[in-house]
Amino acid sequence: MIWLLRLRWSGRDWYLASRPCAPEIAGGDLPHMGTLVCDGWGEALDMGGGVTGAAAASLTLDLGLPESWQELAARGIDLAGAWGELSLWREGTTYAERHVLLYGRILMDTAPPDGEPAEVTLTDELVAPAEVYPPANAVASTDTWVGLPDESDGKPYPFPMGSLGAYTRNDGSANTAGAWYAIVVDDTGGAEKALVAGAPIHASTVTIQERDTLASDTFAVTTEYDGLGRLVSVVDLSAKTASWTLDGSVDLLVRDMTGRGIYGSIGAEPIDGLGDACLHLLLQRYSADGPARVDVGRWQSARTYLAGWRVGLLLEEGEDPLDTLADRLLGMCPALWIMPGPAGFRPVILADTDATTAPHLEIGRNADRLDDGTIEILDTDPITSCTARYAYGQTYGRTRAKITIGPDEDPRAAAGATIRAGSLDFECATYDRGTAALAASEYIRLAWTQPRYLEVTCAARDALQLELGAKVRYTDADIGISERPLYVQGRETGEDGEVWTLTLIGWW
Length: 508
Prior knowledge:
This protein is mostly beta strands. It is 13% helix and 36% strand.
């Protein structure tokens, strides 16, 4: 294997390699002239879950420049900040068949002495500065609404995401909750109006309840522009049937909706599933260059699987979307990680899928044990009973329902409880009882017993086809394991890129 680096710097593309080569591209050859050394590459899932930080590689490179790095730096030409793509390529294949591992920016602490190659780090930082969402100026003010009552001034626009309001009680009966606040933006007689979302929403009608009197009515949702040119969702309150106080001093709450909330960033569909919500937040975080920083294709591919988790979430304060993801959404799917990747930030999922068609790793055939092949057990607290609380309502500032999955509902929980019982209680950002049950079941699936790790080595041709999160069937006759379903938790290679170490994880 040969390491390749495409460097975008000083107005051109530079092509470097760990040894001279000229991969075929579009019927011609692409000479790689520079000198490149890569110490190796590795990535792994943080078993703490959620949003994972930067991926990085240490590189030494020489561009064969006539000027020294110090001379270039004195002229304001700095390699730091350039974009680079690191890949592995096998001779005899085309440039398009290279395996891209990392796309990110170059970091260089100091310029090297004359005649010395540059030692740099190529990194893609997930937590780089970005946009807040909802936008900080998405608030009711006299700049946005001429007829705004004083009591409504400064209230943040609500951004309902998914389906909110209607939910199923613990006893199985239907109910609704005051899911979010509607803001009175005009109390002029005959022109009363409330804002129900800071963007267009899918719902055609909403049912609004006055908090003090509990009187409610249903209104058609329309859109209009506020004073800052933002397209928002509003309702006409002039035809209300109840006698409401509309000076902004009494809370109005949306307790039900016919449809869903805001639309996603891709296509014309409203957000419903967890994948839709994650993709929308990431694209909002990276704003205009979102598609360049987010692996939209991977998220679209994961959409069907993640649609099993239906979201119901209110966004009403401007914050880093990564915080929203980490604190409020990813906890409902413990098998989902957000990680940097060569095409942008991507989902990695330890998906509960059929293993019969998964790749087969067999010791002595296409894999070898590392050292003695010891299976290590991670010391974690098992979960054999999990309670998911859902249907968070603004009326009382708490969740309205819950569901518990335990030994009576899940055989894995029953098996784990005989060894070492443990429980978890968490809030789930949904109004859907099925989603809450699924979330609780997933915690048990991934924690009913302590996870087991083992490491194997294999050739690059196999390792490069097994991305993080991939399910494999593992066979090792010497330790009595036959086609055990395991996941790829980590992978790494040395300087030659030919032999990879895979860390596999499973529960049994």
